């Protein structure tokens, strides 16, 4: 595998501050040292123009305002000598220095010093040069502006916490969109003629065939952005308007979450802990793509991992490197599938096995068998909730009595977007929204909260996501119901009677605590009383159906 390349996005990338802060001034630095809550502050354009992006980023400070020769800045680390020197070099007579949370300063830098924008000089240049007659040759790939454009698109995507980048020719223009917190947003519009060059550049980076423009291709490359190692998977395809490219970004340096940090309510977490510390059996995480299943599985692995256990995984792809585990990755060219990888693992004396996903009979059968022969098996499955996950195994041809005896716990989960704290405001809901909320079973409430949209959340009103969980223990009673092929809603009722807090109830609590909105919950959490829909049956209600799956090939949860 190739080493990660550092994406040089610097030249001309200083967002509207060409030639700023080159060390002309010697300002009097005054430490006022008040703590500034940055989420509701907006730096003035004059202040931003005072400091070049790369200097502000290197020394982690953000200019807020400048007037009459006096600048106000916030610094993440007030004692940083380099930062103090850089601040003192600003071209003003006096700088009043305050402090702010480091993560907030970094977020502020990402938000206010954008390197991908329609006002950008380079983007304007692309438009100016665009003419319908321009034909693209392979040689154009080496053109520096394209290389820089690609680097900047990837860098800004990472700074915006995007999971995917979509590059799509449409009728008359090339659209660039980021997927942030599960939702796509447009970040750039380019001339259609840039498309072939841009896609060719990506193909070069990902070792793909640049001559082949019609057949879909897959590739990957490593990149380094702001010191973070990124694994970028590229998938190209052709639409009627031309070739599209979808990039999936995986930050290999992001930290592993502990079980305690997943946001499970105490009661749910206690129930889950009691299940995962069993010596054998199968634990399955269910939900649609992008529901955070992988994060839960890794946190679980971190919780149960001990030196005396042989932990083995088969994944597609390996998303976190787990030093203490033996991790394998799916490789279709080498015939390593979930099923064949699992067989290999079983020959190597494992105690704990993580199978990235169960989606076929063969894998399901081996996983069930392994859990019945003294191994703890963890996996994920595409199912709407905990109850449906049990029946997904039956759908995949596993005998109900094997499902009942092998599964010990099933987690149902979703991610809902968190209301942006920078632009959150209260409002009185409509009657329809109130009755939707009441249907969830939330506590009485008259005022709700929603985000109006600001630059911190790119106008969406949401920033970050929160998980919604339900944890079902597969008790003897639940097992008997499955063996008797009882209707799924009855299995569900039995689980609730045994203390399972359904996702619906958890979601209502998030709304009650002003963390998310009723609309967001209805869009993401499957709510109807009986959630299991057999594959042969017609779906009755689409209102509360989960979002359609995105980018099927090679996709994984965050
Ligand atoms: Zn906002």
UniProtKB/TrEMBL annotation:
List, alphabetically, the Gene3D superfamilies matched: 3.30.450.90, P-loop containing nucleotide triphosphate hydrolases, Type II secretion system, protein E, N-terminal domain
Q: Does the keyword Cytoplasm apply?
A: no
One example GO MF annotation: ATP hydrolysis activity
What keywords tag this UniProt record? ATP-binding, Nucleotide-binding
In this protein, which residues make up the domain named Bacterial type II secretion system protein E? 346-360
May I have one GO cellular component term?
A: plasma membrane
Residue span of region Disordered: 536-558
By what name is this protein known?
Unannotated protein
């Amino acid at each position: 595998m190739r080493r990660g390349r550092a994406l040089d996005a610097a030249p001309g990338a200083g967002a509207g501050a060409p030639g700023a802060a080159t060390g002309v001034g010697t300002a009097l630095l005054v430490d006022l040292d008040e703590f500034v809550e940055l989420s509701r502050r907006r730096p003035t354009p004059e202040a931003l123009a005072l400091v070049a992006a790369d200097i502000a980023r290197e020394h982690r400070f953000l200019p807020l305002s400048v007037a009459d020769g006096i600048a106000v800045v916030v610094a993440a680390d007030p004692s940083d000598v380099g930062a103090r020197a850089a601040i003192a070099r600003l071209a003003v007579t006096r700088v009043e220095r305050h402090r702010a949370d480091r993560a907030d300063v970094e977020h502020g830098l990402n938000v206010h010093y954008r390197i991908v924008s329609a006002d950008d000089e380079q983007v304007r240049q692309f438009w100016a040069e665009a003419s319908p007659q321009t034909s693209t040759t392979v040689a154009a790939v080496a053109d520096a502006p394209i290389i820089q454009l690609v680097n900047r698109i990837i860098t800004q995507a990472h700074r915006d916490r995007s999971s995917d980048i979509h590059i799509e020719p449409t009728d008359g223009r090339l659209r660039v969109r980021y997927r942030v917190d599960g939702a796509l947003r447009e970040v750039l519009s380019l001339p259609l003629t840039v498309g072939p060059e841009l896609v060719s550049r990506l193909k070069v980076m990902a070792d793909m065939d640049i001559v082949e423009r019609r057949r879909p291709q897959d590739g990957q490359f490593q990149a380094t952005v702001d010191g973070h190692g990124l694994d970028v998977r590229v998938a190209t395809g052709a639409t009627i308007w031309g070739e599209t490219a979808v990039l999936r970004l995986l930050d290999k340096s992001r930290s592993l979450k502990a079980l305690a940090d997943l946001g499970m309510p105490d009661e749910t977490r206690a129930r889950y802990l009691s299940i995962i510390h069993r010596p054998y059996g199968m634990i399955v995480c269910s939900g649609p793509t992008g529901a955070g299943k992988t994060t839960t599985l890794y946190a679980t692995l971190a919780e149960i991992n001990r030196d005396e256990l042989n932990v083995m995984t088969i994944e597609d792809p390996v998303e976190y490197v787990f030093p203490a585990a033996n991790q394998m990755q799916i490789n279709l060219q080498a015939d390593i599938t979930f099923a064949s990888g699992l067989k290999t693992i079983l020959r190597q004396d494992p105690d704990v096995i993580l199978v990235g996903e169960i989606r076929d009979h063969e894998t399901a059968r081996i996983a069930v068998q392994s859990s019945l022969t003294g191994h703890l098996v963890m996996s994920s499955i595409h199912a709407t909730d905990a109850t449906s996950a049990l029946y997904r195994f039956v759908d995949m041809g596993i005998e109900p009595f094997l499902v009942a005896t092998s599964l010990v716990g099933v987690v149902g989960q979703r991610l809902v977007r968190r209301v942006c704290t920078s632009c959150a405001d209260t409002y009185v809901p409509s009657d329809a929204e109130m009755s939707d909320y009441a249907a969830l079973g939330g506590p009485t409430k008259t005022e709700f909260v929603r985000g109006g949209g600001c630059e911190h959340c790119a106008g969406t009103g949401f920033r970050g996501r929160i998980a919604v969980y339900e944890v079902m223990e597969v008790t003897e009673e639940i097992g008997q119901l499955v063996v008797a092929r009882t209707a799924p809603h009855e299995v569900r009722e039995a689980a609730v009677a045994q203390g399972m807090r359904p996702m619906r109830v958890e979601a209502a609590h998030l709304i009650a605590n002003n963390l998310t909105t009723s609309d967001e919950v209805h869009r993401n959490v499957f709510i109807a009383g009986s959630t299991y829909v057999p594959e042969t049956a017609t779906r009755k209600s689409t209102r509360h159906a989960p979002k359609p799956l995105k980018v099927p090939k090679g996709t994984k949860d965050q």
